[in-house]
Amino acid sequence: MLAKLYTLRSLINQNGKNSLIDLQLEFEGKRAFAIWDSIPIGAFELKARLELDPKLLKRVEHHGCDFFYHGELVLPEPQNN
């Protein structure tokens, strides 16, 4: 079954500067995941997901997103892989 995708906006700190980032958000039951990247492979889609604390998500109805995340969002850096 496909999960419904929403838009997530969060504040991140990169190189000492704060900025906003928009990601896709999906839920599986009570769990919430930010989609960092996805790659289609034939009939499948591989997703790099970051699990979020759903208590820190706030539903918003403006600014082009569905939710704002009030927690620390630590994104993977390709050079560290």
Describe the 3D structure:
The protein is mostly beta strands. It has a domain at 16-35 and 46-51. The protein has no helices and six strands. The chain has strands spanning 5-14, 17-28, 31-41, 44-52, 57-59, 67-69. Strands 4-3-2-1-6-5 form a six-stranded mixed sheet, with no helix packed on it. The chain is globular. The model has no long low-confidence stretch (mean pLDDT 85).
Order of helices and strands: EEEEEE
The biggest sheet amounts to: 6 strands, mixed
What would you call the shape? globular
Q: What percentage of the residues does DSSP assign to strands (E)?
A: over 45%
Distance between the termini: 30 Å
Output the structural class: mainly beta
Q: Tell me how many strands there are.
A: 6
Rg over CA atoms: 13 Å
Poorly predicted sequence stretches spanning 5 or more consecutive residues: none
Q: How many alpha or pi helices?
A: 0
What's the assembly state of these chains? single chain
The level of helicity is under 10%
How is the largest sheet built, in terms of strand order?
Answer: 4-3-2-1-6-5
Mean pLDDT: 85
